[in-house]
Write a structure and sequence with these properties.
- 39% of the residues lie in helices and 17% in strands.
- With 328 residues, it is an alpha/beta fold.
- The termini are far apart.
- Bound molecules: uridine-5'-diphosphate.
């Protein structure tokens, strides 16, 4: 058996942190990435195989070459707003691409699959805390595409015995405290990096998308989890599968929600600078409140988030931001 793990999207934000965690745990991460949103220089912990999930032949070659013991599937389009403007690219890239990947894995007898899903699969749920058993009613094409992939994994489990750990992430933030990898989207759409940009003058202001939500301060509430904690859970999920345990879905969040305004206040406190803001209209596809119940990951996987305070996430993101990598 090799120690190779095929990491799709290993050149991206979460994927590159996962490669570091895998390498630290003694695995060899093989990055498969089309570099459409990732960065070749973020691939530091194993080889890079450039390729697109829509290219089945290329995928088959890579499975043949490395004989991975498992797949960690991060590669995806992941912007809620974009998915509402152009749903077709979400269905094609995320769903058709994942179908190719799953088929190539099964054909190569690579039957362990760790999948990055999302709390966006739950949709709008009247303020409840979301557990893995909550109904899934996605309200944007991004969430719908991820939900479809979850269904696909279940079909391949039934018919071919594919085993999966599905992680439904809440809002991922922060960066590797060693500064080896970090968040670098182009264009950036996520709250914390955009806020840091506004703080140091790289953009005029942060626009708050909607101040009329039914929340205490009128802005959306999200549950933020540190990327280092998130990728630790992935390594634990991989071990879970290697130990022959059953396919399972886990939420990854802290169980505490913060409003956009609260994140702004924390960012000001951490950086000791004001955040210039503009109050804007709601962004299409945004849910009012997404907060996890994540007891299952703690009790079953033994996952213990260590850095997932807003203070630590913003501190680590700010440190990375100041290195200038962000300006690629
Ligand atoms: N948000 C905002 N302004 C921005 C970007 C995001 O007000 O420029 C809000 C967004 O409406 C959501 C929260 O911040 O309520 C987190 O958004 P992000 O895009 O970071 O992650 P998502 O929740 O879409 O995965």
């Amino acid at each position: 058996m090799t120690s190779n793990v095929l990491v799709t999207g290993g050149a991206g934000y979460i994927g590159s942190h996962a490669c570091k965690a895998l390498s630290k745990a003694g695995f060899t991460p093989i990055t498969f990435d089309n570099l459409s949103t990732g960065w070749a220089d973020s691939v530091k912990f194993g080889p890079l195989e450039q390729g697109d999930l829509l290219d089945l032949t290329r995928l088959q070659e890579v499975f043949q070459k490395y004989k991975p013991i498992a797949v960690m599937h991060f590669a995806a389009l992941s912007q809620v707003g974009e998915s509402m403007l152009d749903p077709g690219i979400y269905w094609r890239n995320n769903v058709c691409g994942s179908l190719n990947l799953i088929e190539a894995a099964v054909a190569s007898d690579c039957m362990r699959f760790v999948f990055s899903s999302t709390c966006a699969t739950y949709g709008e749920q009247d303020g409840v805390t979301l557990t893995e058993d909550s109904a899934q009613h996605p309200i944007n094409a991004y969430g719908a595409s991820k939900r479809a992939i979850e269904d696909m994994l279940k079909s391949f489990a039934q018919s071919h015995g594919l085993k999966s750990v599905i992680f439904r992430y809440f809002n991922v933030a922060g960066a590797d405290p060693d500064g080896e990898v970090g968040e670098c989207h182009q264009p950036e759409t996520h709250l914390i990096p955009l806020m840091l940009d506004a703080i140091d003058g790289k953009r005029d202001a942060l626009t708050i998308y909607g101040t009329d939500y039914d929340t205490p301060d009128g802005t959306c509430i999200r549950d933020y989890v540190h990327v280092m904690d998130l990728v630790d859970a992935h390594v634990q999920g991989l071990s879970w599968l290697l130990e022959g345990k059953e396919s399972t879905v886990f939420n990854l969040g802290t169980g505490t929600g913060f409003s956009v305004r609260e994140v702004i206040d924390h960012s000001s406190a951490v950086t000791n600078k004001a955040v210039p803001i503009v109050e804007g209209v709601r962004r299409s596809g945004d849910c009012t409140r997404l907060v996890s119940g994540s007891q299952l990951a703690r009790s079953k996987l033994g996952w213990t988030p260590k850095r997932s305070t807003l203070q630590a996430m913003i501190t680590d993101a700010w440190r990375w931001h100041q290195t200038g990598h962000y300006d690629k």
